[in-house]
Amino acid sequence: MSTTFQHFDETLSLTSQEDCENSARYFSVGITNKIFAANFEDDHVIFRVFGHNTNKVIDRENEVIAWRKLAEYGFAAPLYGNFNNGLICGFLKGKSLIIDQMRDARFHVQIAKRIAELHSLIPTDGKSRIFEKTRSFLKQFNPQFQNEVQQEFFTKHFPNDLEAEIEKVESKIVKLKEPIVFCHNDLLVHNIVYNSEKESVDFIDYEYAFPNYALFDIANHFCEYAGVEGDPDYSKCLTKDEKWLFINDYLRFGSDKQVCPDRIAAMFKNLPLFEAAAHLFWSIWALVQAQNSTIDFDYLTYAHSRFQQYQKRYEKYSSR
Q1: What pLDDT digit, counting tens, does each position of 196-212 carry?
Q2: Which distant-in-sequence residues (6+ apart) come within 8 Å of 175 by Cβ?
């Protein structure tokens, strides 16, 4: 953590592309932040401009602490400083994957390996923060929408007591005593960078990185094969056999460097429950965003899509 970290008392525009382009060359996609790069000869510096009210779902202090820890262990680019509404960081060479690439089996081994390395090398206190974080989202959500159309949609598609859903999933997961490690917790396609020269992958954007169940990180990644542009298409998610092979590779590259068939079977049995937990986590997150974000994205419909998958995966687990 030796990199000098500075604060700049400046605020960059989130909504004006012209203002950003005056000081930046490239924009990237995002449904929470706007990201662009400034070039200085052969060096690239990334500016991540936070979305409006994202502090309601992202602990910015924890983000800085987690990012600097990850950089120390070689899992993240250097973090140079922050400004009033964003961060300044280094550049990891490579390009974010697209969904078709992520679904290519050639990438599965590399992604599984990098997740295993992350889980093996970063120390934690052994306490998962996932349900604490999910509840913190829920506290930021007001079930009474100002928009009548949104209110009607929410009332029709969501239960009155979301806290009960969290408790239901938590009670089952805690009993399983799955390993707790340091997790990325947001391994969607845009957060996986492929370096074609090294033929390796890295992860970016550690806004939600914290100690969690290892199987949550894997399950959450599996959910993200549906994509985030438009309506997620869950028919594009990995098949049963593909998930099995992924978990096999994850264990092969893990701290124990060995694969136990019984352990694979146990993880695979518990996987739908952790997929349900991931869907519930992001569904409640999206509900908060629907009431606060100024970014042009249909968060409410996305929240509904994730909640439907939460119900399906929970039923899949419970019916066994």
Answers
A1: 998 899 999 888 999 99
A2: none
